């Protein structure tokens, strides 16, 4: 087993090791209950269209793994789940296959298992256009996620230490790839300034990926033999805060929520804060490693539950959901106050 194989295996095993129910930033988000929905459950439309990509449900299997024999098998399980529930799926970083072609099949298995599915390749912001094209070709991908992960790299013992040119790399990929590009954080959240920068270079799909889910600073810190960087484990913004920052950015890009989203109510709250789509990683990983059939059954139940919650809110579509009344409290409200984000406007939108 190579060092790269071992690192990929460690990422998955440590993600599962640290998997636990955490206090969600969405606990600070509360819907105002109005007694008359004036609609039926059958009126709800869960589908979403973003940048020529069609999603039958407002959530998908977000980037996780690939790059070793074991993680290839995990990717196959995730692809089965995606196929049987008609969900989109992103792989982990394809850089492992670019460095070592023998690992290509650990990514290709996703397309082979889910040939008609919506599949996203994934690559770090340190890569240029040619590598982006290669990553997309390996998966015959419908889109490319570019992950932005400076905190993870700095804590990772063998991580990058050079970050100049990341934004220009993203711009060149957006302009030259010919496929939709999703700019994605990896659990540290985004500020309005970051979101404006991404839109300024042409990015139309932005995954804010905040704190609350897989903590890659914690994972990489655990892997360090010495000189631990404990303080960085708390770095970044929550997903709820990142969505509010995105709303303040007043850009036209489509916003995707990920980071600590584990159940339908959190998906609905994320969309009420402006997200159009939800990405889930650790929750799907946890389910896939336990029981694929049970995971499929759970996802089908989630789709029903989403319709029920949206009916309670009188929201037929995701767009209507984004106009429902919400109260923002706790640490999220305190952040908004410090950043001059007016939370009162969210309380009387409908």
Q: How are the SSEs placed, and which strands pair?
A:
Elements lengths: L2 H15 L11 E3 L16 E3 L2 E3 L3 E3 L7 H17 L3 E2 L4 H5 L5 H9 L5 E6 L4 H11 L3 E6 L1 H6 L10 H11 L4 E5 L6 H9 L4 E3 L8 H8 L15 H11 L4 E5 L5 H9 L4 E4 L1 H9 L1 H21 L5 H4 L4 E3 L1 H9 L12
Parallel strand pairs: 4-11, 5-6, 6-7, 7-8, 8-9, 9-10, 10-11
Antiparallel strand pairs: 1-12, 2-3
Task: Supply the key terms.
single chain, 350 residues, alpha/beta, 8-stranded parallel β-sheet, two-stranded antiparallel ribbon, 15 helices
Summed up, what is this model?
With 350 residues, this protein is α/β, with parallel strands linked by helices.
Distance between the termini: 57 Å
Number-wise, the strands total 12
- CATH structural class: Alpha Beta
| Domain count | 1
Q: What class do helices, strands and sheet pairing give?
A: alpha/beta
CATH A-level architecture: Alpha-Beta Barrel
The best one-word shape is globular
Give the CATH topology.
TIM Barrel
């Amino acid at each position: 087993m190579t060092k790269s194989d071992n690192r990929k295996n460690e990422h998955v095993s440590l993600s599962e090791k640290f998997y636990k129910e955490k206090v969600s930033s969405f606990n600070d988000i509360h819907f105002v209950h109005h007694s008359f929905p004036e609609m039926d459950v059958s009126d709800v439309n869960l589908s979403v269209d973003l940048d020529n990509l069609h999603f039958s449900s407002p959530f998908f299997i977000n980037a996780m793994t690939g790059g070793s024999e074991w993680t290839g098998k995990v990717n196959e399980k995730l692809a089965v789940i995606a196929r049987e529930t008609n969900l989109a799926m992103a792989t982990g970083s394809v850089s492992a296959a670019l460095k070592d072609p023998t690992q290509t099949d650990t990514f290709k298995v996703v397309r082979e298992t889910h040939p008609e599915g919506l599949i996203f390749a994934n690559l770090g912001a340190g890569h240029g256009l040619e590598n982006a094209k290669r990553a997309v070709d390996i998966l015959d991908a419908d889109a490319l996620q570019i992950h932005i992960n400076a905190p993870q790299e700095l804590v990772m013992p063998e991580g990058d230490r050079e970050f100049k040119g990341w934004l220009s790399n993203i711009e060149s990929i957006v302009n030259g790839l010919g496929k939709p590009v999703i700019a994605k954080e990896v659990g540290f959240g985004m500020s309005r300034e970051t979101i404006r920068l991404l839109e300024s270079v042409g990015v139309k799909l932005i995954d804010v990926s905040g704190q609350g889910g897989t903590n890659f600073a914690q994972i990489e810190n655990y892997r360090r033999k010495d000189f631990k960087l404990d303080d960085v484990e708390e770095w970044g913004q929550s997903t709820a805060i990142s969505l509010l920052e995105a709303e303040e950015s007043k850009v036209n890009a489509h916003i995707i929520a990920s980071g600590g989203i584990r159940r339908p109510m959190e998906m609905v709250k994320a969309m009420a804060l402006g997200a159009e789509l939800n990405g889930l990683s650790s929750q799907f990983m946890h389910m896939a490693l336990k029981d694929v059939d049970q995971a499929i059954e759970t996802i089908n139940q989630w789709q029903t539950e989403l319709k029920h919650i949206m009916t309670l809110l009188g929201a037929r579509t995701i767009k209507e959901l984004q106009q429902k009344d919400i109260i923002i409290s706790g640490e999220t409200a305190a952040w908004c106050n410090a950043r001059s984000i007016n939370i009162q406007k969210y309380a009387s939108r409908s």
